Amino acid sequence: MNDVLDLKIKATQIRLDLINMIYESKSGHIGGSLSSADILTVLYYNVMNVDPNNPNWEERDRFILSKGHSVEAYYSVLADKGYFPKEELNTYCKFGTRLIGHPNNKIPGVEMNTGALGHGLSIAVGMALGAKMDNKSFRVFTLMGDGELAEGSNWEAAMAASHYKLNNLIGIVDRNKLQISGNTEEVMSLEPLEDKWKSFGWDVLTTDGNDIEKLLDTFNAAIASANDKPKLILAYTTKGKGVKFIENKANWHHRVPTEEEYKAAISELQELMEVYLNEQNIK
């Protein structure tokens, strides 16, 4: 799927699905899921080489959701891609479901259990190094939250990735500048973040993580790069993107909307969907 408008429609549907999941289950992390929806959409519909009909295909690209609490967006994408029936999203966080509140590798398409923050990059480094050792051509992607970068394990992994010249590894940071405790720069300052990654030997690209077209260009540039460095995409996003009253508010990190808020959020996204569908019909 290469058309930017088609990807915008997909990302909007992902947002609708994840809000439904969180409201119906009365559980979930809405802010970070909304901020990462565009990144996941571009990855799964344009960038990564995967086969939902053969989820364990040896040559597949690997993806690790290090910020495992944004699982609602992840499950929505996997279901839409056909890894499991979309109706199963209705069971999210309910008794007996396999769609629990953090990724579980018993679910088709999920490579690794995550949720304890700060470990996704280490796992991705191991996978990328294994690919090099086995002369495999697949790439490894991992999506990290900016709040979890306070964990020292990330920087040990970053150092190892550059040491072993893992140019088959692409890390993405969802830089929405908010975490459960508030603004990242007040909780544990990360800046200058771009310079930090560069100092660890990474090739750093920056982009608007909620702009489909810019994300496409940035991923294409990262993949086309011929150097031997691991790649880091610093994706500047808005926490809660797509729902105005949720955007840029730390208290929506882990909060379930009321019935009134739910209806307002769905209405706003449905209006946006109508705009995109009308554009598609004109084309």
Provide a descriptive summary of the structure in words.
It holds the Pfam family Transketolase_N. This protein is α/β, with parallel strands linked by helices. It has one domain (4-282): Thiamin diphosphate (ThDP)-binding fold, Pyr/PP domains (Rossmann fold, 3-Layer(aba) Sandwich), CATH 3.40.50.970. The protein has helices spanning 4-25, 30-47, 71-81, 120-133, 152-163, 184-187, 193-199, 212-224, 259-282; strands at residues 62-65, 140-145, 169-175, 178-179, 182-183, 203-208, 231-236. The strands form two sheets. The chain has a five-stranded parallel beta sheet, sandwiched between helices. Strands 4-5 form a two-stranded antiparallel sheet. Strand 6 (203-208), helix 8 (212-224) and strand 7 form a beta-alpha-beta unit. It starts with a helix and ends with a helix. The model has no long low-confidence stretch (mean pLDDT 96).
Notable features of this structure?
single chain, about 280 residues, alpha/beta, Rossmann fold, about 45% helix, about 10% strand, thiamine pyrophosphate, Transketolase, metal-binding, metal ion binding
Number of helices: 9
Supply the helix-strand structural class: alpha/beta
Strand proportion: 5-15%
Q: Which consecutive residue ranges, at least 5 long each, have pLDDT under 50?
A: none
Mean pLDDT: 96
Widest sheet: strand order? 1-2-3-7-6
Overall CATH class: Alpha Beta
Helical content class: 40-55%
Number of strands: 7
**Any idea what the shape is?**
globular
CATH architecture: 3-Layer(aba) Sandwich
State the end-to-end CA separation.
16 Å
Radius of gyration: 18 Å
The name of the CATH topology is Rossmann fold
* Largest pleated sheet: 5 strands, parallel
